[in-house]
Amino acid sequence: xxxxxxxxxxxxxxxxxxxxxxxxxxxxxxxxxxxxxxxxxxxxxxxxxxxxxxxxxxxxxxxxxxxxxxxxxxxxxxxxxxxxxxxxxxxxxxxxxxxxxxxxxxxxxxxxxx
Length: 114
Hints:
It comes from Mesorhizobium plurifarium. This protein has no helices and nine strands. The chain is mainly β. The mean pLDDT is 96.
């Protein structure tokens, strides 16, 4: 297996998903996830996309995100809301609790470490 892996979703079948119904605050958000890397020990990387809606999020994992397209608002409980759009990068740390609201269908690259 080569040590270089391009993040290319052309040959990866996306997984369909959605937030748990009890976490949805508005809309009918749907997810597509192209997981291109999955390693023992809980490391994942790929592309994630969500359609408009708002839901509660709770992070037990560490995640690096880079927004490729769309607009979302991420609000931490007790903190400020942050609008993210194409070109923005950020980390969500374990213990993050708040909301994710997709204003325009959003696609991101991600790396998750459990």
